[in-house]
Task: inverse folding
């Protein structure tokens, strides 16, 4: 399994109504140093309908300003449609919405 496939497998596990951080996905995919690689993988997401990359935010809960499928406004829209509150300046409250990885 390639690094990107490992990353996609973890992103697919993020449940509706939850977010994960790049570092968290890197850790679950096998290497905590892959946070930047997670960003590259999500930007190259081959199947956004099955790999919900919009559920991945930075360590502060901020959405990406370079979201691959329509910019940060699209990521905010998708998160809100998923039941996640996003502030007007693009932050998710991690204390409330961070996935705990329990279904790994």
Result:
């Amino acid at each position: 399994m390639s690094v990107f496939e490992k990353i996609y497998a973890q992103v697919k596990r993020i449940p509706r109504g939850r977010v994960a951080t790049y570092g968290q996905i890197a850790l679950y995919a096998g290497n905590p140093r892959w946070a930047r690689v997670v960003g590259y993988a999500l930007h190259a997401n081959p199947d956004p309908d099955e790999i919900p990359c919009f559920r991945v935010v930075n360590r502060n809960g901020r959405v990406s300003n370079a979201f691959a499928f329509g910019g940060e406004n699209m990521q905010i829209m998708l998160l809100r449609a998923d039941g996640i509150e996003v502030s007007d300046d693009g932050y998710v409250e991690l204390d409330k919405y961070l996935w705990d990885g329990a279904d790994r």
Notes: Strands lie at 20-21, 56-57. The radius of gyration is 12 Å. The mean pLDDT is 92. DSSP finds five helices and two strands in the chain.
